[in-house]
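Hi L.,

As promised, Sodium-dependent transporter:
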Amino acid sequence: MVERETWATRAGFILAAIGSAVGLGNIWRFPFQTATNGGSAFLLVYLVAVLVIGIPALLGEFVIGRRSNINAIEAFNKLGRPQWAFIGAIGVIGSFWTLSYYSVVGGWVIRFVYGFGSGVVLDAPQEYFGSVAAGPEAAALHALFMLITVTIVALGIEDGIELATKFMVPSIVVLLLGLAVYAFTLPGAGAGYEFYLSPDFAAVSNNAMTVVPAAAGQALFSLSVGFSVMITYASYLGKDDSLTADGLTIAVSNTFVGVLAGLVVIPLLFAAGIGIGDGGLVSGGGGAGAVFVGVTTALADLPGVAAQVVGVVFFGTVLVAALSSSISLLEAVVSYLVDNYRLSRAPTAAGLGTVIFLLGVPSALDTAWLTWFDGIGVSLFLPVAVFLVVLFVGWILGAEAVDELRQGTSGGSTLPMVWLWGLRTVVLLAILAVLALNFYDLFLTPEAGDYYIVPPGL
């Protein structure tokens, strides 16, 4: 029997998990979600959602992964509850589904890195985005992004994922910090900070039906909870590691990067006079194109080659972040086939990458399809998977979950019991409420919200 891979170091696991969390969800999705959901109102609810739902659910996935020491589907069989294996399957399917359109956006990022390097993107950002967001070129770049992802995953846990994320994660933080300092110097950025950072409780109460589920979905998406990714990553951990300490480190780091990305993007948009909340931000490509069009427009006024340099740095950062997450989404699927069927890692990654590429072709050819895939993934797959994980860990695993959380920690801390009862009550009810709001929006108010159930053109 082939010995199962493990992380070479604890730091490698933490950086890989942070890398999974710190991706397009933070730098692409978070700023436009914040901008189109009330700025500070969305940020406030998002931070509460990370604390109340995200971190407890993240620890729940860690417990399942390390206690079983195997992939997300087989984990439930290993834990003696085979009837619950469908939970892991939903998460794995969610990873598969999400990566199909995530890779398309990764292809856009590659094209924008080139566009800034050559300078061609600066003449007409909206038209440039329209020309690269959908069509044969977008499909080709989608294939290129998947090829890079497959290559890293094919190299394995230690030589591929761990090695790559040790470079990627520090690079993302350093580059975003530099960009945030630059954005701070721009005239007009102050209005962006006020919009982003000044708490607006009235905006939360007046728009709770849309802001709350959007913020909760973003919190889960950005933490990579619900994709079976964290179950998979934790399955490579040893018993000496503190899941609580690691989970808090990952959540805090991820949230820091998300907030930092907002401190880059939103001041840039305000400094360029780009409208937020009046349709100006999301014109051309909808919300999916907001960061691409908005940031490029904001940088176009810089003198000389400065716009090109800053643009390459920004979208280069986004590209690194996108890859750090895409490899985790693919690993969640690869690990199941490698563990259960003893398949070779490299051809398995290549085969799955090909299927995921084909699934993503509609999103590459039409941004309406990408929006539909994103809506199904974030509004249905994600909260359903998280709800089931929390239900399983809280009420089925119970005492075993507490025992696992205590492994690697000193003393008989009461924190695991507090966490367990939090899962059983507050977290479970909060996710149930988010699910109810999502279903209401998707099924009962198609004319008022984002209606994703019927595919585009049908």
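The mean pLDDT is 85.

Thanks again for sending the construct details.

K.
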